[in-house]
Design brief:
By secondary structure, the chain is an alpha+beta fold. The protein contains 30 helices and eight strands. The chain has an eight-stranded antiparallel sheet with strand order 3-4-6-5-7-2-1-8. The longest helix is centred in the middle third of the chain and has 18 residues, at 393-410. It is globular. The model is unreliable at 1-23 and 466-473 (pLDDT under 50).
């Protein structure tokens, strides 16, 4: 089996129109490949297929697989990858021999998405006779996704060195699904020192991602040897550091500390810190304390997490207090430091924090809430009450949640009841519905009756605005595609996210996920993303935002979006939709820090960063979008 050269063959060019975008290597920041354009925005027949996809009408889509136009057949097969209708399996298998490589590729993609067994063998049989690189790559991906026992023998038959990385990714998917064999682990261990960085990356990915390190324990020496020979900027070190840390390999502790100090990329240093933090042995406080001065916020946050694992010694406490003084604007990290000091009963730094002249800023208040929540006793509760009244809705919600937990532990102490009664009464009068409602419920506690709780509750209920909005948990209606609006935006509009760290520009792929692009750009144009925080930041994984309810008490997105599983792989800088399960997407999105192939075909991927990837790397959990807007892309 021989891959095509870097130039498209003439026959492929005639069919596809042009060469497909190059695949991004995991060790680079290139844009990932995507499905070739088919003119969706100008073709009502293809738009009808997308509408059927959003309606989850597999039977109707199945009829389009027999259409005389190859572009229609391909689009219908691609749509079935999101519908995941197993009734289409037999026809999709037949399309693996279609004359058009686009149809073969989309059929393979859809088969890889089907939740059924028995597909590995026919997929591999098609793979053996495939000549088109575009279709071949998709078929190999499907083999990995639908891996079954004994698939290793088939994958080992792909000996072309140009496909080594793709085969290793398929093997990684096999071992992670539980269908892999020891021969696969041996091959992956061997490839940890392969000269191609992409091969090293996917080989290491399997070891880092497997849920049970005991499965590959015999190969730990190979991981240590490979890690010793890597250059300081080799991203494959991320996987090996994580894998050895999760396997509790004490022999690699020196390597972890070395990479923490010498890793040329923040992802590598963060992985080294994460590995050290996952070890059962004593925390190397010297190395961790030094990491608090790392230029990456992710490394610093992980260092704070490690320092919080054990009671801080006097030198560590002094170092942490010094960091507060030297870096007063390192707010995400300082929140963790205040939490450590508050847990240790060191009250003074937390109280000093609440004297800051910029206390009304949300990020400052959020850091203070963490410290106050950790302080025991009345003073901690009073500071939480001060934070709740500080003017930030997000900080107020966090503070009242902390107070509610604290009241649960304090109910048995009579001396604490007047303090909490006063705090809850003040919070119930706040202008934040998310705060006043739970505070009012807490005031109904029978222990507050001797303090006048009944009268206060009655007074508050009488003065509450009758027109106050009531939010329900009912699912919002599914949105349908506004094709006229998408035509105005074009096939590749740009989503601009101006954050407090800089601006990120994302190219959106309308043809791959038209419904998602339609919905997300609408929310951006309506200003719903302005002021919204990045509420979830996981180093070496994703930065997540878009929860519009966290900014200004806004209502949630007015619609739900169907999942659109696309051909865009989750490489570094890819834009995807957060989800609580298939067809539950609303407004939340994420951007990947690094390749995450386990997300492929399970979360809607609909674009990637084209400018500002360094801004994505700098975003922490207290950062936010200042303003979002959309520009057309034709």
């Amino acid at each position: 089996m021989r891959a095509l050269s870097t130039f498209c063959l003439l026959g492929v060019a005639l069919v596809l129109g042009s060469c497909a975008p190059p695949d991004a290597r995991p060790g680079s920041d290139m844009a990932p490949s995507a499905r070739p354009a088919d003119g969706l925005l100008a073709r009502p027949d293809l738009q009808r297929i997308v509408d059927l996809q959003e309606q989850r009408d597999g039977a109707a889509l199945l009829r389009y697989l027999d259409h005389e136009d190859a572009t229609v057949r391909a689009r219908a097969a691609f749509a079935l990858g999101s519908v995941q209708d197993t009734a289409a399996a037999s026809r999709l298998l037949e399309l693996l021999l279609d004359l058009d490589p686009r149809v073969r590729a989309d059929a393979a993609f859809a088969l890889g998405q089907l939740p059924m067994e028995g597909l590995s063998t026919p997929l591999f049989n098609a793979l053996k006779v495939e000549w088109n690189e575009y279709a071949l790559r998709t078929q190999l991906e499907a083999v990995g996704k639908r891996c079954e026992p004994a698939a290793g023998d088939r994958l080992f038959q792909v000996v072309d060195p140009e496909w080594r990385a793709a085969v290793d990714l398929a093997m990684a998917r096999c071992v992670l699904s539980g269908a892999g064999e020891e021969e696969m682990w041996a091959r992956l261990a061997e490839d940890l020192t392969h000269p191609d960085p992409e091969v090293r990356w996917w080989a290491g990915y399997a070891f880092a991602r497997h849920p049970d390190p005991r499965t590959w324990r015999a190969h730990r020496p190979a991981l240590r040897i490979a890690l010793t020979g890597y250059q300081t900027g080799d991203r494959a070190a991320v996987h090996l550091l994580r894998a050895l840390g999760r396997s509790q390999d004490l022999f690699s502790r020196g390597l972890q500390r070395w990479w923490l100090q010498n890793g040329a990329r923040w992802e590598i240093r963060a992985a080294a810190m994460e590995a050290l933090g996952g070890m059962d042995a004593a925390v190397p406080l010297g190395a961790v304390a030094g990491a608090l001065d790392d230029p990456s916020v992710h490394v610093r946050l992980l260092a704070v997490q490690m320092l919080g694992q054990a009671p801080p010694s006097r030198p560590v406490v002094e170092f942490l207090r010094d960091h507060l003084d030297r870096h007063p604007d390192d707010l995400a990290v300082n929140g963790g430091i205040l939490e450590i000091l508050g847990t240790a009963g060191i009250q003074e730094p937390v109280e000093e924090w609440f004297l800051r002249p910029d206390l009304q800023e949300e990020a400052v208040l959020l850091a203070g809430v963490r410290g106050a929540a950790a302080l025991e006793g009345q003073r901690g509760a009073e500071l939480l009450g001060e934070a709740a009244a500080g003017g930030s809705r997000r900080a107020a919600v966090n503070a009242v949640e902390s107070l509610e937990r604290r009241w649960g532990f304090s109910r048995g102490f009579e001396v604490a009841r007047p303090v909490f009664f006063r705090l809850f009464a003040d919070l119930a009068r706040s202008g934040f519905d998310e705060v006043s409602r739970p505070a009012l419920e807490l005031l109904r506690d029978s222990l507050f009756l001797p303090l006048g709780g009944g009268e206060v509750v009655a007074d508050l209920e009488a003065t509450r605005e009758e027109a106050a909005p009531v939010r329900t948990r009912a699912r919002r209606p599914y949105r349908t595609v506004d094709w006229e609006r998408l035509r105005r935006l074009g096939p590749e509009p740009r989503l601009h996210l101006e954050t407090n760290r800089g601006t990120v520009v994302l190219a959106l792929r309308t043809e791959e996920a038209p419904l998602t692009v339609d919905g997300i750009t609408l929310l951006a144009e309506e200003g719903r993303y302005d002021g919204v925080p990045f509420h979830r930041v996981v180093p070496n994984f994703v930065v997540q935002g878009g929860d519009v309810t966290l900014a200004g008490g806004r209502d949630p997105a007015p619609f739900t979006l169907r999942s659109e599983f696309t051909r865009i792989p989750y490489l570094r800088g890819v834009l995807g939709m957060a989800s609580a399960g298939k067809d539950t997407e609303t407004s939340q999105y994420f951007v990947t820090h690094s390749p995450q192939p386990h997300l492929d075909g399970g979360y809607t991927a609909f674009g990637w960063v084209v400018d500002g990837l360094e801004v994505v790397d700098a975003l922490g959990p207290e950062d936010h979008v200042v303003r979002a807007w959309v520009t057309p892309g034709h």
